[in-house]
Amino acid sequence: MKKLILLFILGTGVLTSLAQNTLKVYDAFDDFSKVHLEGLSDDTTYVINFWATWCRPCVQELPLFDSLNNTSHNKPLKVILVSLDLVDSSAIKLRVFIKKKEIQSEVVVLTDGNSNRWIDLIDPNWSGAIPFTLMIHNKNKSYHEKQYHSYNELIEDIKSIKE
Question: Which of 52, 71, 114, 157 is the least crowded, having the fewest Cβ atoms under 10 Å away?
Fold first, then answer.
């Protein structure tokens, strides 16, 4: 019985710490866009990846984006991972996932249900499939509806947007 009580207390502590680790949720695309797509610094390259925990190719490529984030501390590069998970039913699950995978990149959640509108605003050629990565440097944008399989592949796409 003591072990059960201890496990409950420890489990509650984990959930409390996860609940305190706030996850920025955007219910409207326009709010997300104002923060992450508009008024961006011209000297910074932005790598914005749309993903979900239920998307196996997305999960497989996450370490590449996190490596990019971790190796770019002295470079003008920002990685933003945009989760399309439904937060109402899985906020704790998403936080646990982020912690378990040791994701250090910025993670935000976009729950705007009108994806047919905002997908076209990002890229009219985007089918809506994920993973999807948007790269922005100055006024240049590139769109990548694919899974990245290597760090070098990711770097090459970043280099091409800067040319």
Answer: 114
Distance, CA of 93 to CA of 144 (rounded, Å): 27
Question: What is the CATH number assigned to the segment(s) 23-162?
Answer: 3.40.30.10
How far out from the chain centre does Cα 13 lie?
A: 26
What's the predicted TM-score (pTM) here?
Answer: 0.84
- Which strands make up the sheet holding 132-137, listed edge to edge? 24-26, 106-110, 77-83, 45-51, 132-137, 140-144
Q: For 15-61, what is each residue's pLDDT tens digit?
A: 333 343 468 999 999 999 999 999 888 889 999 999 999 999 999 99
Rg (CA), the chain: 17
